[in-house]
Input
Amino acid sequence: MQRILGYKGIVGVLAVLLAVSVLMMPIAADAAAAKANALPQADAAQACADAEMQAEQDVNGTTWLLIGCVLGIWGYLIAYVLESNPPASALVGKSPTYVAKYTDCYKQKAKQIKTKNALYGCLAASAGWVLYYVLVAAAVSSAATVE
Output
């Protein structure tokens, strides 16, 4: 009976198998981690819906409307630049991917509410000033014609 593989052949085959498994291990680990951390589409939609509802409760649109009225374009810029963070209590016990999606949606919805209301306040104040100047000009004009 003839020997097919000798000691060196067996060691060579084992070395090749070990090298392939060492090279493939990070790829398999990354795939497993990505699968474990992947947020299903339904969970992502739920995280976003929860975040938007919380942002609507937390952000006071009337306050930002008044800020827009008082500060004008500066109020709008402050609303645009200022970033709101979700309350930590809403994120306790959630997965990292849920927290990331929730945080992104919360910040986006809060910014939308703040900027919209600050812009409306700025436009309302601007319209009020224009109306004021038109009325003053009309009063001055009518006073000049009376004399």
